[in-house]
Write a structure and sequence with these properties.
The protein has one domain: Vaccinia Virus protein VP39 (Rossmann fold). The chain contains 7 helices and 9 strands, in the order H-E-H-E-H-E-E-H-E-E-E-H-E-E-H-H. The chain is elongated. By secondary structure, the protein is α/β, with parallel strands linked by helices. Strands 3-2-1-4-5-7-6 form a 7-stranded mixed β-sheet, sandwiched between helices. A two-stranded antiparallel sheet has the order 8-9. It is about 25% helix and about 20% strand.
Length: about 350
């Protein structure tokens, strides 16, 4: 859940609300939406409900830090507390909620239908916000369907409002945030849409394979930090695309050179000569045909190049190869013998009588 985008949604919903309303996050994950609601709006209750124990423990850790360091400096006219419960969202009573949020990207159709039925107990004028998937209920009207930027990519946000008992709308048809200018709707390229679709489908398959053993690292259900969503909306495509939280390691890239990839190119060399009175620059070009497959005729295997050796190193290497020297001690003795020979050598004389 992206803080800035979620705050825009809350602004639209709560702009004409009085302080003291109730907020629920059904599937609260690590608690991000709950704390975003507490920091940006003056709710009397901010409650998170989570089924996975690992995520519930994480939200409790963040909650402890909030109570220790931030709660006392928060300005509020009604309340400053947050509440987190380890429970099933279908068993917990959230009928007193004025704003109910569900990051429902990975919820299946049966769960969305059950949420729609349970939400019918909300009072008229209450809001139900979902990601990626909306609900189909005669008791609610869909007043906005717009795309926002989230941490995983584009997400379609559905805002539903509970109708009056006689079926009439319980509020204005258009929501306003109260800002002087509304933010531009999120826009995404076709390449982004296709990439998010691939990621979402891959993660969906992984969740289906191990649906009964979901852990924090594998699950996106109810985790507002790591879930993904996408779909139709303003400023986007007509086709709905869904995205999950993590960029998997098998995400395709157009810039990876595999063992069977080949490419061509050129390298240019520039050199300057100081030998002539006038410094002249010369340019040489070398065409390259590179094939990373070692068995290709374009790039046959070559022996590694050898660094040039000094004369002493060449002589020592030759002697070692021929078996003259067998140890460092022999090398030292041979060097002493050469030095002694040079010392005892008779000087060459130019005198005729010598």
């Amino acid at each position: 859940m992206e803080f800035k985008s979620f705050n825009q949604v809350l602004r639209k919903i709560c702009h004409q609300m009085e302080p003291g309303k109730v907020f629920y996050d059904i599937g609260s994950g690590s608690g991000r939406a709950v704390f975003a609601s507490r920091f940006t709006q003056d709710f009397s209750k901010c409650v998170g409900i989570e089924l996975l124990e690992s995520l519930h423990k994480m939200s409790n850790q963040v909650h402890a830090k909030y109570e220790k360091d931030f709660q006392q400096i928060l300005s509020s006219k009604v309340n400053k507390t947050c509440e987190f419960y380890l429970d099933n969202l279908l068993d917990f009573d959230w009928s007193d909620g004025d704003v109910v949020f569900a990051n429902s990207t990975c919820f299946d159709d049966s769960l969305m239908e059950a949420i729609g039925k349970k939400a019918s107990s909300l009072k008229p004028g209450s809001f139900l916000v979902t990601f990626t998937k909306g609900i189909k209920s005669e008791h609610f009207e869909q007043i906005e369907k717009k795309r926002y930027k989230m941490s995983w990519g584009p997400a379609t946000v559905f805002i539903h409002r509970r109708k009056n008992p006689d079926g009439t709308p319980s509020g204005p048809a258009v929501l306003t945030s109260g800002l002087s200018h509304s933010p531009e709707p999120a826009k995404f390229s076709k390449e982004d849409e296709e990439r998010y679709d691939r990621i979402h489908e891959e993660n969906k398959r992984k969740i289906e394979l191990d649906k009964n053993k979901l852990t924090y690292g594998e699950s996106s259900r109810g985790d507002d930090d790591d879930e993904g969503g996408d779909g139709d909306g303003d400023g986007g495509d007509d086709s709905e695309s869904d995205s999950n939280d993590q960029e998997t390691e098998d995400t395709e890239s157009n810039y990876v050179i595999t063992p069977n990839t080949s490419f061509s190119g050129s390298v240019e060399f520039y050199s300057s000569s100081n030998n002539s009175p006038e410094r002249s620059n010369s340019r040489n070009s070398l065409n390259l045909d590179v094939d990373t497959n070692p068995g290709s005729p374009i790039n046959p295997p070559q022996p590694p190049p050898r660094a040039p050796m000094s004369p002493n190193l060449q002589r020592t290497t030759k002697e070692s190869r021929e078996g003259i020297l067998t140890s460092p001690k022999d090398t030292m003795l041979m060097q002493r013998k050469r030095m002694k020979g040079k010392k005892n050598a008779k000087p060459v004389s130019n005198s005729f009588f010598d």
